[in-house]
């Protein structure tokens, strides 16, 4: 019952995946700290410091905290008002042979900042894994509906026809850019490494009796043990908070993509042309039983706005770091970084769920095309009259008058567009009446849309997904299930 009596973030308690929620959990954080202390001790021992095998062994055997360890750490933090030192002490009780060398030469940011970089890297990897699946699902949708004509919209007003599949490629292109940007951010991440209290490595230089070579070797070795290709060459006490600007920027950009896709789907749902999945027992409205509200797409929009805004926190935090460091970044980052990834995770899961169950209504789409196509076909009709020997200006005037009459029926009388019937009744157009149906075939109005879909999928989407890391995710073939 305690969980129901205190506030819990809906990001972790209601929406996010277990994998992402666990990554930013206290258990993972403090386990990672212990792993970093172990790596530091291993590297220091390799470089000649008097650290025993027993100390290393006890540290290796106690990397995960149990309930008693968490309780002890909480007591220590309350007493010491310092979370890192509380955990140094707690780790020392679990690994007594190592108690005297844990955190040797390091400052708090050795564990806090290096751990954060590890979490950023792993979180970006989880995001990429979900994003490639979303791209794959939308690609299948675009392929399926590559040549289904639909009314295009500019300014949300009827425009030239496109296809359902071609419209989906507009979404896919932005998702591909997000894939590129997020992967680039992950692959560019470095490690803070072993830099000391103000980034000068003075404490480590003292430990190794002024041997600069060993200090550099220590920095490199700890970086290798943590699985990073390189450490940032210079840091202050912290790694530059500009790193987080670069990490959250592609997440915010993805938020804009997801918002646009979900908004399009919400508009299409209003038009009854395309709908998100709607389960058998799902309730659209507590009052209006007939409703099928696009709640998943609305959730995507809602959380995407939050994701986009979080980038501003990273920018502001980066801009106010004084000299070698200030602590006014700490509380902000504890909130911003986990929330950014938990939010992106939820948006991706929901977007995948939507993409796997989109429902298309071709008859509704055809009916809307029929209402607008006669007006769009007027230029083709005029050109066909001219081909049959007619006068272009005379044909234009005839069409203009009939179009205005048909528009009055639609707008003022609430009737159907009867322009074609009016043309068929007018003797002036006798020369082209036999070919009218062909002139009004929606497929003749979509240009190269189907071919563009084929080319885009073959030359852009498939190559982007043809990566060993991504192929493993796609081979799993898992469906996205929502918690709520």
UniProtKB/TrEMBL annotation:
Q: Which residues form the Adenylosuccinate lyase C-terminal domain?
A: 373-457
Q: Which reaction does it catalyse?
A: N(6)-(1,2-dicarboxyethyl)-AMP = fumarate + AMP; (2S)-2-[5-amino-1-(5-phospho-beta-D-ribosyl)imidazole-4-carboxamido]succinate = 5-amino-1-(5-phospho-beta-D-ribosyl)imidazole-4-carboxamide + fumarate
Q: Which GO terms describe its biological process?
A: 'de novo' AMP biosynthetic process; 'de novo' IMP biosynthetic process
Q: What is its EC number?
A: 4.3.2.2
Q: Name one GO molecular function term.
A: (S)-2-(5-amino-1-(5-phospho-D-ribosyl)imidazole-4-carboxamido) succinate lyase (fumarate-forming) activity
Q: Which InterPro entries does this UniProt record tie to the protein?
A: AdenyloSucc_lyase_C, Fumarate_lyase_CS, Fumarate_lyase_fam, Fumarate_lyase_N, L-Aspartase-like, Pur_lyase
Alphabetized UniProt keyword annotations = Lyase, Purine biosynthesis
Please name the top-level EC class of this enzyme: lyase
Q: Which pathway, per its entry?
A: Purine metabolism; IMP biosynthesis via de novo pathway; 5-amino-1-(5-phospho-D-ribosyl)imidazole-4-carboxamide from 5-amino-1-(5-phospho-D-ribosyl)imidazole-4-carboxylate: step 2/2; Purine metabolism; AMP biosynthesis via de novo pathway; AMP from IMP: step 2/2
The UniProt record lists the keyword Lyase: yes
Identify the CDD domains for this entry. Answer: Adenylsuccinate_lyase_2
The record's Gene Ontology cellular component field reads: cytosol
What the record says about family reads: Belongs to the lyase 1 family. Adenylosuccinate lyase subfamily.
> Subunit arrangement?
Homotetramer. Residues from neighboring subunits contribute catalytic and substrate-binding residues to each active site.
This chain belongs to the protein called Adenylosuccinate lyase
**Which species expresses this protein natively?**
Rickenella mellea
């Amino acid at each position: 019952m305690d969980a129901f009596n205190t506030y819990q973030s809906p990001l972790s308690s209601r929406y996010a995946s277990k994998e992402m929620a666990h990554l930013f959990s206290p258990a993972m954080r403090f386990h990672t700290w212990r792993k970093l202390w172990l790596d530091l001790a291993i590297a220091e021992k390799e470089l000649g410091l008097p650290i025993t095998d027993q100390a290393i062994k006890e540290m290796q055997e106690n990397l995960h905290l149990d309930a008693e360890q968490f309780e002890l750490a909480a007591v220590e933090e309350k007493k010491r008002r310092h979370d890192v030192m509380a955990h140094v002490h707690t780790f020392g009780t679990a690994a007594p042979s190592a108690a005297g060398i844990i955190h040797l030469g390091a400052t708090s940011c050795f564990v806090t900042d290096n751990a954060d970089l590890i979490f950023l890297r792993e979180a970006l990897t989880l995001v990429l894994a979900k994003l490639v699946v979303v791209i794959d699902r939308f690609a299948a949708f675009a392929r399926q509906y590559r040549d289904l004509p639909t009314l295009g919209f500019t300014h949300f007003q009827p425009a030239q026809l496109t296809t359902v599949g071609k419209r989906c490629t507009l979404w896919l292109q932005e998702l591909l850019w997000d894939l590129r940007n997020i992967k680039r951010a992950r692959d560019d991440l470095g490690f803070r490494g072993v830099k000391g209290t103000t980034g000068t490595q003075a404490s480590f230089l003292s430990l190794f009796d002024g041997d600069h070579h060993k200090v550099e070797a220590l920095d490199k070795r700890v970086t290798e043990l943590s699985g990073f290709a390189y450490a940032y060459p210079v840091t202050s006490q912290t790694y530059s908070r500009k790193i987080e600007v670069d990490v959250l920027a592609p997440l915010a950009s993805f938020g804009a993509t997801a918002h646009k896709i979900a908004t399009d789907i919400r508009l299409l749902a209003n038009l009854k042309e395309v709908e998100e999945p709607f389960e058998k027992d799902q309730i659209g409205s507590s009052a209006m039983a007939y409703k099928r509200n696009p709640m998943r797409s609305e959730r995507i929009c809602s959380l995407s706005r939050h994701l986009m805004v979080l980038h501003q926190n990273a920018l502001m935090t980066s801009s106010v770091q004084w000299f070698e460091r200030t602590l006014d970044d700490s509380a902000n980052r504890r909130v911003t970084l986990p929330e950014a990834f938990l939010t992106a995770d939820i948006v991706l899961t929901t977007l995948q769920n939507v993409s796997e169950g989109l429902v298309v209504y071709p008859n509704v789409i055809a009916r809307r095309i029929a209402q607008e196509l006669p007006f769009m076909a007027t230029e083709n009709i005029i050109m066909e009259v001219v081909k049959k020997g007619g006068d272009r200006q005379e044909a234009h005037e005839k069409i203009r008058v009939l179009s205005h009459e048909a528009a009055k029926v639609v707008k003022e009388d609430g009737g159907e567009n009867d322009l074609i019937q009016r043309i068929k009744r007018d003797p002036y157009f006798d020369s082209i009446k036999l070919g009218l149906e062909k002139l009004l075939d929606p497929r003749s109005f979509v240009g190269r849309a189907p071919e563009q879909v084929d080319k885009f999928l073959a030359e852009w989407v498939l190559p982007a997904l043809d990566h060993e890391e991504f192929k493993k995710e796609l081979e799993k073939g898992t469906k996205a299930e929502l918690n709520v």
